[in-house]
């Protein structure tokens, strides 16, 4: 078992004696604070912080991180306040400890919410000091190593959280060794039987494969020696969890996964990496589509390497990774290499800069998220290990999650560009915004000044930043629109009792807020606009103060001036357009729904006059309104193209089309088209009726 003495000896290899003494002081302080506390295994509690510091020492972390590791449970478990720690060990260590400490004071509605809140707090602390996450990861790693002492249910919960959040974070920060251990231990805790069976199969396969692995390795080493290239060739084993994931995702058998032989070649410098690649492609035939150059374009977590797949003897697939010693160290320890290689400031610093950039991105998502669960949902998307790399028109590389679209790209460039995005060019050709991007493509975003995010974008965006920005915008838009509609509805209801909204006294406003249990007038108007509260009922709360309320029933209709808006919608059953006599009804959470006056679906609501709202078209109503029409035609070649052409000439666009072939001679074509008003629709109908193959044309309602 590790002791403070053995740890001090290890630390002497890279810390000075004064710093080691500070770490020892933190240990003795923690030992005193946790006095009498034990772990589930029965060991004194202080063995845990000591082990966490041991994990960090293997990464050559600085003395402040090690002190924070010693003290990371003191605030939470012993009641010692942050101020006391700051006084003893300084503000930096106290901030690190506070960042790592869990949120336990707040009671959350669910375990998921608590987990999300903890992660949210951690993200904020990471923004101030990236070391917080390294201490937190080391803490989680030791907890995973000692899971066996816990009850099965708790064990599975911690394992699931580790696989869901901590393993992807370790991957995102380039800490491959830690990620693999997280995944294997998490897998064994979640599915012990599967893990044992897979481990046994793996042991057996290793024995069967041994000879072939040695033959391939010898062939590679001999060729590199012949070319006078100094290198280290290692056979690379897939770890348990990655085998399990591949079997599930690709629906492949264990044998198919194990049929691939993987090797890593470590050389002195970058030039030699490319020389080795040429040698490998001469030794065995390469699979062109499988070559990836992560040296020229590093992954978002700083990972660099050349990847190629070769076809060996008897058609055996061979995966080869080629990298330098520094790249290999960076691939295994990731951001921790910043502390491991203080002398070589180039690559690790850029890796740390990448980590900071990621954390800043987290904070941006956090500001826009409505709650912690939405935040963590967006972050999980962002932790996706697979990435695509695309270029801006100026040649800058943007890294996006796999499956990302031009909208994700637009938001990655800038939130403002995302909001105003209307179209895109991929490799200088116009393309749909929903088209998934491929690595190496050049993307140009076309923006328009008045453009706004479309709710439909949420169906195909994949990056956390894009999704949180779109949701944030739509939430705000809905909030403003519902207040505006609520104001119009309440203003009209008050005019019916000879009152004006802008002339209400402070007492009257307070009376309304007291009666409706609302905190302010804005919240009350939003509630009315969303259809959760009836404007007439709110106005009636003031009616008793009005002496002449009996004689007033002047219903001034609400004016509709455009097709846009989230809180005024047009019923699909009858699709009203400007010029139609209309009526509205308030639907909870949806706002005002407008129907044609004689619509069958609104018949029942006529018995509840308080839910019916008088509406009218404004004289200068603008926009495009959808309407359904049914066209009966003689079946002939090219009829749909002719029909579409005739509609386009009349300035109407087709939103949807459905063809029902009645028999060999006649067909019924149902269309949903966009028009400006009844006059425009009449012009479209006249043009279509003039076609010789059209038998009958009607507008569909209900």
TrEMBL record:
EC number: 3.1.7.2
Class of enzymatic activity (EC top level): hydrolase
Cited SUPFAM superfamilies: ACT-like, HD-domain/PDEase-like, Nucleotidyltransferase, TGS-like
Location of the ACT domain: 628-702
GO biological process, one term: guanosine tetraphosphate biosynthetic process
Record pathway: Purine metabolism; ppGpp biosynthesis; ppGpp from GDP: step 1/1
Pfam families: ACT_4, HD_4, RelA_AH_RIS, RelA_SpoT, TGS
Catalytic activity: guanosine 3',5'-bis(diphosphate) + H2O = GDP + diphosphate + H(+)
InterPro entries, sorted: ACT-like_dom_sf, ACT_dom, Beta-grasp_dom_sf, HD/PDEase_dom, HD_domain, NT_sf, RelA/Spo_fam, RelA/SpoT_AH_RIS
SMART domains, per the entry: HDc, RelA_SpoT
Limits of the TGS domain: 386-447
GO cellular component: plasma membrane
Domain HD stretches: 45-144
Keywords of this entry: Coiled coil, Hydrolase, Kinase, Transferase
GO molecular function, one term: GTP diphosphokinase activity
Segments forming a coiled coil: 195-222
Protein family (similarity comment): Belongs to the relA/spoT family.
Function: In eubacteria ppGpp (guanosine 3'-diphosphate 5'-diphosphate) is a mediator of the stringent response that coordinates a variety of cellular activities in response to changes in nutritional abundance.
Name the record gives this protein: guanosine-3',5'-bis(diphosphate) 3'-diphosphatase
